[in-house]
Design brief:
CATH class of the largest domain: Alpha Beta
CATH topology of the largest domain: Isopropylmalate Dehydrogenase
Distance between the termini: 23 Å
Strand order of the largest sheet: 2-1-3-12-11-4-5-10-8-9
Oligomer: single chain
Helix content: 40-55%
Number of helices: 12
Number of strands: 12
Radius of gyration: 20 Å
Strand content: 15-25%
Amino acid sequence: MLLRIAVVPGDGIGPEVTEEALRVLGAVAQSFHHELQISTHPIGGAGITAANNPLPPATEAACVAADAVLLGAVGSPAYDNVAPELRPERGLLRLRQALGCFANLRPAVCFPSLVECSPLKRETATGTDVMIVRELLGGLYFGEPRSITGDPGARLGTDTMQYRESDIERIARVAFELARKRRRRRVVSVDKANVLACSRLWRDVVNRVAKDYPDVTLSHTYVDSCAMALAARPAQYDVLLTENMFGDILSDLAGALVGSLGLLPSASIGGKVGLYEPVHGSAPDIAGQGIANPLGAILSIAMMLRHSFNLEKEAACVESAVVTALEEGLRTRDLVRGSEKAVSTSEMGRRVAELVGQTVDANTS
């Protein structure tokens, strides 16, 4: 198969983790006899530097024309005080809109070999396997009007949370379809229906959609209660369905619970072209030091293979290689405990790529 992929490494540690993800993808292509067609383009702060635009037109065009997009990370302190439309993060939001990616899938799995990295007790963290399904193109991040008005000392900030019924229905169906493929077949819908009109509509629509999925169990919870339960009993959850901002916050919490944000991949799907990226940010404080964890980016490659190319064997091979590398004791700095020795970003990526090849060889011998 020809895999046409647009790569937007972005800022901070983005280029470093993306390089290792592509190394692993190269091992997959070689082992399974696929052809790669990869092009690289600037986004975020890199886009501003190159074209005074966080999403240069050429980058947007290349991403829309690709089969899938791999993103590193966006964000830089150098642009903290620029106009909102020039912030690096606006490039990412615009790219999601351009690709039509309305559903963000964020799995959080506590690997048995990393259970000691969780801040939770072993018995609490063990068995955590949550899929967070986050609506990506609505809510506070995209609602209008948005503004800061008034004179200094008396300014008023306004953001608008809004959802159309059709937006809620389509993300709910993604969550229910995913739940059908999982062992427990449970969806917990997260809202704030006791306060927000938007959430009351959300709950009503999700209840209606649930009638089409009698084999999936649905329950509801408030976002604050969900955050507390995630920290206390994360293994109880299967699929969490959330609006945009709630999902953004809860997925970061889930990442901390399983050991590190550096472990978490994500897939943004629903449009013609899928967007794949690690959950972590650009981490400018450690950029260029070779200590970033590339596993979130590598596991994003697995999600790309599964959701954009329907290559389940290849995706499972990448995931198996990651599990084996961790079982061998490889740890980047964020995962090191006690006297354990840290490996570099490239050492981790290189070992996972080697294990991909070895896994395929073992299965074909």
